[in-house]
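Field reference: "sequence" (input) and "structure" (output). Example, ANK1 protein:
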Amino acid sequence: MGRYFIAGSWNDWRPEEMMLEDEAVGRFTIKASLPKGKQRFQILRNRDWRQLIYPETRYADCEDDVPVKGPDASGYDSYWSIEVMASRNVFFIDLELWPEAALAAREDERKARPAVSKMKVSWRSVGRQELSQQELFENARPSFFLVGSWDCWLRRTKMRFDGLRQSYVGRAPRALRGGDLFQILSNGDWNSILHPSVHEAGLENTAASRGAGTRAYPAWRMDKDEVVEEETSARRRASDRFEVVLNIRSTPWRVSWQKSSSDELDDSSDEDLDPELYGPPGADGL
C-alpha cells in the first residue's frame, strides 16, 4: 500500500505524511489549517516526486469528480484546488484507495455512473483556527521556488526574501559542476514559470518572462566559468553553492546568479536537501 504524503502551497511544497485512518477501505487523512484564498496540492507515494497522485485536469475541485491519476511523474503541473474562507480554514483532506471488490460494489450502488478510478481525493472544512500575524504576513507575500536540472526538475527550493536587496534569493541545493539549467516557479506552480527569452541563457540575458505548463520552456544555464573566479586551489570546496537572485523591483524582473560559500550565510538562508525526499520508490502496488 505504501505511505502517502501531501505537498501544497500552504506548506511550501514540503511533503507531510498522511495518517492511515481506515485500513479496511485504504483511507489516508491529514488535518491542516490553511490560509485564506486558493490553496493547491498534490499527493506523493513514499515521499517520491516520481510517484505523484494528481487530478486528470488542472486545479480540480473535489466536487468535479475528475479521474485521479498516478502514481507517476507525468502530472507535475496538475493540482487539486481548495477555496479557503477565513471563517472555515481547518480542513481534513482524505485519500481513499479502493480495492477491486470495493470498486465493483460502488458500481452496483451508482448504477448509472461507474467508478472512474481506484483512488479518490476529497476534503471537508471542520472549523476555524486563528493564524498568527507572522503566518498571515508570510502567506500574503508572493513566493518563488527554484527548480533545476541538478535533481531532474523534481524538487522545489524556496527562495527567501532579502529586504536589503529587495529581491528573492535562493541557493542551489547542492554544489554545481557547471552547465546546470534552472527556472523559477511563482508560488511553486508549474503553470506559472519564470524563464528567459532564449534557451540556455547566460548572464547576458537576465530578463524574466512568464510561461505555463511545461518544463520545455527556455531555462537559464548556470556555467561555473561565468560565476567562479579562478582559484589557486586545485579543486573547489565541496561546500560551494550558487546563489540565484530574482529582482522584482526592475521592469522586467531580472534574474542573476553568483557563487556563495555556505559558511558565509546563516542557516536560515539555506534550504537543506532532505535525504528522504526521493524514496525509496514503492515496490508495493496500490
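DSSP finds three helices and 20 strands in the chain.
The domain at 141-269 is CATH 2.60.40.3620 (Immunoglobulin-like).
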